[in-house]
Amino acid sequence: MKSLLNKTALICGSTQGIGKASAIKIAEMGATICLIARNEEKLKQTLLELPNDSGQKHHYLVADFSKPHKLKEIISNYIQEGNTINILLNNTGGPKSGPIIQAEIEEFTNTFNQHLICNHILVQACYQGMIESGYGRIINVISTSVKQPLPNLGVSNTIRGAVASWSKTLANELGQYGITVNNILPGATNTIRLQGIAEAKSEKTGESIKDIFEEMAEESPMKRIAQPEEVAAAIAFLISPDASYINGVNLPVDGGRTKSL
Fold first, then answer.
1. Helix, strand, coil tally for the chain in percent (to 5)
2. 102 lies in a domain?
3. What's the CATH code of the domain at 128?
4. How many domains does the chain have?
5. What is the mean pLDDT of residues 44-56?
6. Is residue 2 included in any domain, yes or no?
7. Does residue 235 sit in helix, strand or coil?
8. How does pLDDT run across 188-221, given as a tens digit for each residue?
9. Closest CA to 189 of 216, 155, 161, 221
10. Angle formed by the axes of helices 154-174 and 118-133, to 10°?
11. What is the pLDDT of residue 135?
12. How confident is the model over 103-131, as pLDDT tens digits?
């Protein structure tokens, strides 16, 4: 893949899992990384792990996505200081598992704010700089549930679908400027999020976490779950110059688990 020298990438949820793996991969491609997450200690630690072979000066922003208005203030100040974001990776942890019929109203509104509204705030702050710099890539890490709803993830299925439709609409509007907007749909991936889902199921059913993970692996034709680095590799391609004519797609990275085309 072509280099991302002189490009800056804003990576959300960048202190663990897919976000962290993506930050490392994109830094390897030469981009300057701006990490964003709520835990400053973890941000500082992640910063030390980022490659800087191209002389990059990586940095971070501290923001809690449960407070959209505060996020808007933080990213607005960052842009007003003269910073330009060329690559935006929207990546936020999902809500707790459970049947949709049992979900409280607040679970929907909170998740909608943390995902769609915060994504929108970041795009609105960054897209003009993408136009002016002549390079723009927006990636949303969502879920295969936008193609096939997943059992016991009612709130997540609902909000992920909303983000996918928002993203497709955005792709239609921003494509004329050379900005691409695409969605990555991870399947079962070895992250803290998946561990939490397995623990919740274990408490409810009495199954061991080991057995639950083995069941998840069996759902994929490849008979294993993904590693975060495998999802990051797909993200790296879509943000590269080589993917300049790929726009408005949902790309599953699930080993073939999703049954729909």
1. 50, 15, 35
2. yes
3. 3.40.50.720
4. 1
5. 97
6. no
7. helix
8. 999 988 888 899 889 989 999 999 999 999 999 9
9. 216
10. 20
11. 98
12. 999 999 999 999 999 999 999 999 999 99
Res. 1: pLDDT tops 80: no
- Type of residue numbered 188: A
Domain of 236 in residue numbering reads as 8-187+228-253
Which residue is it, tokens 């491609």?
29
Tell me if 200 is assigned to some domain. no
Is 40 in contact with 16 (CB distance < 8 Å)?
Answer: no
Phi, psi torsion values for 42, nearest 5 degrees: -70, -35
Domain-located, residue 13: yes
Q: Tell which phi-psi region holds residue 227, choosing left (phi > 0), alpha (psi between -120 and 50) or beta.
A: beta
pLDDT at 6 over 80: yes
Q: What is the 3-state secondary structure (H, E, C) of 53-95?
A: CCCCCCEEEECCCCCHHHHHHHHHHHHHCCCCCCEEEECCCCC
Task: Quote the CA–CA distance of 61 and 214 in Å, as a whole number.
Answer: 37
- 15 vs 187: CA distance, rounded Å: 20
pLDDT, residue 94, reads 87
Q: What is the per-residue DSSP string for 99-149?
A: -GGG--HHHHHHHHIIIIIHHHHHHHHHHHHHHHHT-EEEEEE--GGGTSP
pLDDT, the chain, mean? 96
